[in-house]
Amino acid sequence: MSVTAAQGFTAAGIHAGVKEGDALDLALVASSSGPIAAAAVFTQSLTEAAPVTLSREHIADGRAHAVVLNSGCANAGTGVRGAAAAHAMAVAVGKALSTDPTNVVVCSTGAIGPELPVSLPDGATALVAALDTVNHTLAAEAILTTDTFTKEAVVKREGWVIGGMAKGAGMIRPNMATMLSVLTTDAVVSSDVLQSTLIASVRRTFNCLNIDGCQSTNDAVILMASGASGIAPDLDVFEAALATVCFSLARQMAEDAEGASRVVTLNVSGAANARDAHQLGMAVANSALVRCSFYGGDPNWGRVYGALGVAGVSLAANEVSIAYNGMTVAHGGGEAPFDRDSLLADLAEGEIIVDIVVGHGPGSASIVTTDLTPEYVTFNGEPS
To answer: Residue 148, exposed/middle/buried by CB under 10 A (0-12, 13-18, 19+)?
Structure first.
């Protein structure tokens, strides 16, 4: 189980007419006991989608009863009609659940520009009727767009659980969360603590994922706590468990990235602080040249070295060392002797781990990215 692994939650996924055919396109995750403690982090885009604007307002009081999510249409770039459509979804779900519409968080994902079908709120009644604590996978499936598989994760601790689902395969360089994710727990945690731990966990996980350097208009991660376990966990333990769930979901998104053939982990250490390490790692992950070399299995440390130099972070070039899959290829700011044939064979396929040391400071960060492939360009070059 995932988003319903924690006590006190139900979920559903149905076809409501956003996507063609009978593909699932509308999901709901709901508390079984009415409004509960909740927290969220949203995109920082100034062209945020209508549901993001609405949901910021609805969850500002730290409470939520349900999250409704549609796929197949982002409801972004849709002006006042988009705002009205997002509000109509909250009203419809609220009515079906006998709760105030302000207790409903609304999320959308898909193409920017098209408007939601006016009939979409009609699906709210069927969606609520389909709520099920067991068939959670339908909810995880209903939020997918270009994804090829559902993304779910669960962590169990002494008497309490955190579970979650997410979607995302492209347009991912979160500066807040992920494309869309709903997380649930039955631990007893206040909304203030939920918010602070969510921000901290997101910073360590989703914000360290960079698939294509592009942020979305719709990014949102929602966390709800039912308290049904009756256990108030140690906050450090809770945050670590939350980060574990978030990292698993982020990793699954990297594995499902549009057109990608490799997952690449960039481990940066020796920076002045964690923020600098993160910025350095993101600069490497943002480089199209670097990511092309990952596709070819080429230990081209010069491209990594070049990207580090324009990251906007102070560093001493002669202290930079770079290793691919444990083999050092550059040290002291220059090339180090290494067995090129052996390394090329090791990098011929599969995952790549690049360790980058930039000095002797305490700052470190791990960035998860992918290679840049011809398939990615072809996929995203087609009319959408």
So the answer is: exposed
Could you give the dihedral angle defined by the CA atoms of residues 253, 256, 258 and 260, in that order, rounded to the nearest 10 degrees? 110
Could you write out the DSSP letters of every residue in 134-149? S-THHHHHHT-SS-SS
Options 109, 178, 184, 197, the catalytic residue:
178
Q: Is 220 helix (H, G, I), strand (E, B) or coil?
A: strand
Angstrom distance (rounded) from CA 132 to CA 111: 29
Number of other residues whose CB lies within 10 A of the CB of residue 384 = 11
Task: Collect all residues with Cβ–Cβ distance below 8 Å to 214 and sequence separation of at least 6.
Answer: 171, 172, 173
Contact 330, 336 (CB under 8 A): yes
> Is the model more confident about 261 or about 284?
284
| pLDDT tens-digit series, residues 164-193 | 999 986 544 444 334 699 999 999 999 999
174 sits in the region (left: phi over 0; alpha: psi -120 to 50; else beta) called: beta
Helix, strand, coil abundance in the chain, percent, nearest 5:
35, 25, 40
Compute the distance between CA of residue 384 and CA of residue 380 in angstroms, rounded to an integer: 8
Tell me the C-alpha distance between 376 and 148, whole Å. 14
Contact 171, 146 (CB under 8 A): no
Higher-confidence residue: 97 or 125? 97
The per-residue pLDDT for range 67-123, each reduced to its tens digit, is 999 999 999 999 999 999 999 999 999 999 999 999 999 999 988 899 999 889 888
Catalytic, 178? Answer yes
Q: What span, in angstroms and rounded, lies between the C-alpha atoms of 238 and 373?
A: 38
Note if the pTM is more than 0.90: no
- Which domains, from first to last, does the chain contain? 9-255 (3.60.70.12), 263-381 (3.10.20.340)
Bridge partners (DSSP) listed for residue 12: 28
Helix ranges, the chain (H):
50-58, 79-97, 123-129, 137-142, 191-204, 235-255, 274-286, 288-295, 301-309, 340-346, 374-381
Phi, psi torsion values for 169, nearest 5 degrees: -145, -10
Tokens standing for residue 363? 């700052």
Look up residue 251 and give its two tokens. Answer: 């990793």
How far is residue 17's CA from residue 95's CA, in Å, rounded to a whole number? 20
